[in-house]
Amino acid sequence: MPTSRLKRRRSRRLGGAAAAASVLALVLTGCVGAAEPTPTPTPTEAAPIFASDEEALAAAEQAYAAQLVVVDELSHAGGVAIEKLEEVATAEYAAGISASLERLSASGMRTTGATTFDTVELIEHFEADDVAHVSAYVCLDIGDTRVVDSSGADVTPPDRILRAPLQVRFESRFLGANQLLVAGTEPWSGDDFC
Amino acid sequence: MLIFTSNDPPDVNSLDYITGAISESAVDVHAERRHESTGEVPGGEDGDNVGSAETEPPPRGAVDVWAGPGWEQLCGANFEAGCSRPSAPAAPATPAPGTPAVTLRDIASFRPAEPSDVMEPNGWAVEGLPANFVADASSEVVSGTLLGQPADVRFTPVGYRWVHSDGATVTSSSPGATWSSLGVAEFSPTDTSHVYTASGEYTVTLRVALAAEYRFAGSGWLPIAGTLTIDAAPQRVLVGEVDTVLTVGDCKAYPSSPGC
Prior knowledge:
heterodimer, A: Nuclear Transport Factor 2, Chain: A, four-stranded antiparallel sheet, about 25% strand, B: Immunoglobulin-like, elongated
């Protein structure tokens, strides 16, 4: 992990006062150089992003709820706001949602009602390069939602899947952050646990 | 519509479910396409971070969700004896290259006719004596659209099971035959007969196991792995006891005669 340690130090130094920076930097470099043979790990480096499965699951639930709220808000209003989506989903996944939103508003339709979920179960969580990856089974429930056209008429398709078993992937929003973004969602093709 | 790439598992979002962009049929096609593109069982492509066996979906066929009444996956659920098809080896199930692999799930819209059954005596039985049951189900070809192409599906009965409400089941690989066609006396035991030990009212339900094959225009019949069952309408059976009495004549003609 030496690379990440260096990165963090450098960014901290950048935040320092400009005038004293160069002098301090020289001193610091000297200090660091001397201290290098016996590095003492700082407590933040020893602690993982999620100390337990429960913490990872709680963060995933929070992130998924936040993502559903934003998608509901946007699809109720009938607009697309990629910057709002990117607060709750990775850029890649947000692009997919935004494409779905565009299709919806292009056809003059919007949605009503809240999307909910339950039966959340942790699949796994791990960390790589200071990014936490969490995946969980989620039961998506769209039973309270409807699709309406511009005149307000209910045009909800009859053959919708009201409760869908999904596998949802999450990633840290920032390096080392325990706040998660939705990174991907796949329909679960195995046993229906919903 | 869904867009597929062969490497990335396709991502979906809640809106796709709300708008019906993913519906019952769309998900089926989707799962199947993934299956073909990787040449693996679904779930195997999730490899890079999820690799353990417990996160993989069970193999296709072991668990299946059949929509509609009377349908279910047969193998493993019931019919332990009639599960495998009598003479069809497993290997030829591989379709020709370029032909999509077809599963029972894909042919869910092809409905075979409901089987029927007759019993002797008709609708009643005598306590302690065999009642004979005969199924009426035959091979049939149903036409429709399979994976977007016109196709035929042929259903062939391969197993029969009568589920009696007294708890007994009679399983046979043949549909049974009437006493007269077997050349035996009435109330003789047959392969498909059943003896009710107490009088009362019972129901009997015939379940027929069907093997399915499909063909596209110009191709030969290709088997589909597994079998499915279809239930006939339950039939009522009235079981009574019989006593032998001596009378002057027919009890209808002599209703006041002793014994009547």
